[in-house]
Amino acid sequence: MLEDFFRRARARLALGKKENGAILADFEEAFLYYASAGTPFSDALRLLNPANLGGYYARPALLWYPLDDAAKVYPLSLQRNRMAVFRLSVTLVQDVEPALLQMALSFTLRRFPSFATTVKQGFFWHYLDAAKRRFSIEAEREIPCRPLDVSGSGAQSFRVLYYENRISVEFFHVLTDGTGGMVFLKTLTAQYLRLLGEDIPAADGVLDANEEPCAEEAENGFDHAEAAEKPGKGFLGQLAVQLSGRPAEAKPCRILHFRMDADALKAAAHENGATVTAYVLSLMFLAQRSATDLRIGDFSIQVPVNMRKFYPSQTLRNFSMYCGIRLPVSRTKKLEDVLPEVSAQLETKASQSAMREMMGATRRMTRSLRYVPLLIKRPAARMAYGFLGDRIFTNTLSNLGVVRVPKEMERHVAGFDFVLGTGVINRARCTLITYLNTATLTVSKYTADPSFEEALFRLLTEGGVRPRMEGSELYGR
User: Fold this and answer.
1) 3 state DSSP class of 304
2) Residue 78: which residues within 8 A CB-CB, separation 6 or more?
3) What is the mean pLDDT of the chain?
4) Whole-number Cα distances in Å, 98 to 139, 144, 192, 434
5) From edge to edge, which strands make up the β-sheet containing 320-328?
6) What is the pLDDT of residues 340-350, one digit of tens each?
7) Minimal CA–CA distance to 177: which of 45, 292, 55, 321?
8) In the chain, what is the greatest distance between 2 CA atoms, to the nearest angstrom?
9) What mean pLDDT do residues 175-196 have?
10) pLDDT tens digit string along 273-285?
11) Secondary element (H or E) of residue 107
12) Within 13 Å, how many C-alpha atoms sit on residue 357's CB side?
């Protein structure tokens, strides 16, 4: 039966000799795990059925994808230790079995062809080229959100990591945004749980890995969104006040999680007549005042906006824009003064009309540069990204919203985390994600100065939320 099994597996592999051998070795490791766990041999044969590979690894790599409008700036701005990377993690009830996670990744990738790609340089723009290979998992040993090496032929533009009972996927932002990344993570996790014998349906953002991917999932969502014709500021803006604190050698130097009762957070926001996003943003403005000695100039917080809420789309690629919420430092003294202004700006600047202006500015910029050779574009983009990209914002708040999984999956999942890599000079970046009744506000730090997070903790506690703190020790100095 094993000979027949591996004959059928080899028939679905047409990669190089080394790659084929590595995937067959993965099957062997999975069989050894099932044997050690006492899984009946017939069940192991069924769970590891080579049909789960489909014909994906048996066909040559033919596809390539032009970068979407939001992603074009990311590879242009690449420099040593500077890369737009974000992390999504799921914490399971039980420790991860690496042999099964590796098989789950090999089974899942056929459903996400635009993720199984490598970044290539064209004459005018970068693009994503299909990379038919064994994408590997890694044991987590390094600092989160470290840059990926995308320079090699067939290099991965994402990494899958495991640590104890946590599975993390770190994405180069050129591939996807938080929404698409979460679909990938949930589908990968569901596939892993199926290999453990659990019956997990394809629902609530979990895709059926054995279904053929549809074209809409890899489309550029901006092609179907209506952009404004009138000029907008786009990526330009006034410089913002930065938080104090000596930049650390390691980036991020600390990651902190504020675990909160979601109902308590929502009640605190509603008691102040605001949405959760506006409430947390207001507390961030107040906390920032405690983290700098400057009293002139403006704070500005970047807020990503999911365009799918305005233009329904199945795309798993980038389909987000952003807005900037801005307040003078001198006015960030009391919540009752800050919150109404933050709420008003958020309603206006994150509106569909404002996003249409941002899209219009983005299209004008890319069109004006489309015939400029990449060799000339790259230095200018690096300068603009480094000088303007970080300096026009003090901080970031990316709210991924409520994460839902199929009911059959809930008892295996303890929680989700969302981490942004740090920027060039911004001392902190924040995310918010909610699963079941736990809202997690995560702060990525670029300085050991604890003033911002200490003030944020105090403000949340005073508002009746009482967060539970979890976090890393300092990385490096």
Assistant:
1) strand
2) 150, 382
3) 90
4) 8, 19, 10, 27
5) 320-328, 298-306, 395-403, 428-435, 438-445, 254-261, 468-471
6) 999 999 999 99
7) 321
8) 75
9) 97
10) 999 999 999 999 9
11) helix 98-108
12) 14
Look up residue 329 and give its DSSP letter. Answer: G
Cβ partners under 8 Å of residue 241, min gap 6: 288, 292, 294, 297, 298, 299, 329, 394
Tens digit of each residue's pLDDT (9 = 90 or more) over 18-73: 999 999 999 999 999 999 999 999 999 999 999 999 999 999 988 888 887 777 66
Contacts of 247 (CB under 8 A, 6+ apart): 425, 427, 446, 447
- In this predicted structure, the answer to whether residue 124 has a pLDDT above a threshold of 70 is no
Q: How far apart are CA 427 and CA 248, in angstroms?
A: 9
Mean pLDDT value of segment 169-184: 95
Is the C-alpha dihedral spanning 347, 348, 353, 354 positive or negative? negative
What are the helix (H) ranges across 273-334?
Answer: 276-289
Please count the helices (runs of H) and the strands (runs of E) in the chain. Answer: 13, 15
Pairing of strands 298-306, 320-328: antiparallel
Q: Provide the token pair at 41.
A: 């041999």
Residues in the chain: 477
- Residue 126 has what pLDDT? 75
Please report which helix (H) or strand (E) contains residue 433, including its range.
Answer: strand 428-435
Residue 477 pLDDT class (50, 70, 90 cuts):
very low
Rounded Cα distance, 222 and 210, in Å? 28
Question: Would the pLDDT of 81 be above 60?
Answer: no
> What is the rounded CA–CA span in Å between residue 359 and residue 366?
11
CB 128 within 8 A of CB 317: no
Q: Which residue has the tokens 């990377």?
A: 85
pLDDT of 78 higher than 70: no
Q: For residue 380, what are its two tokens?
A: 């200018």
Beta strands in 262-412 (DSSP E): 298-306, 320-328, 395-403
- 301 within 8 A of 394, measured Cβ to Cβ: yes
Amino acid at 254: R
| Tokens encoding 399 | 């709210």
Q: For residue range 349-403, list pLDDT tens digits in order.
A: 999 999 998 888 777 777 766 667 766 666 656 554 544 568 889 999 999 999 9
Eight-state DSSP code of residue 71: T
Checking if the pLDDT of 173 tops 60, the result is: yes
Query: In the chain, where does the domain assigned CATH 3.30.559.30 lie?
Result: 254-412+422-471
Among 428, 114, 80, 461, smallest CA distance to 261 is for: 461
Integer Cα distance of 13 and 3 in angstroms: 16
**H/E run at residue 166:** strand 166-172
Q: How far is CA 393 from the centre of its chain?
A: 19
Q: CATH for 254-412+422-471?
A: 3.30.559.30
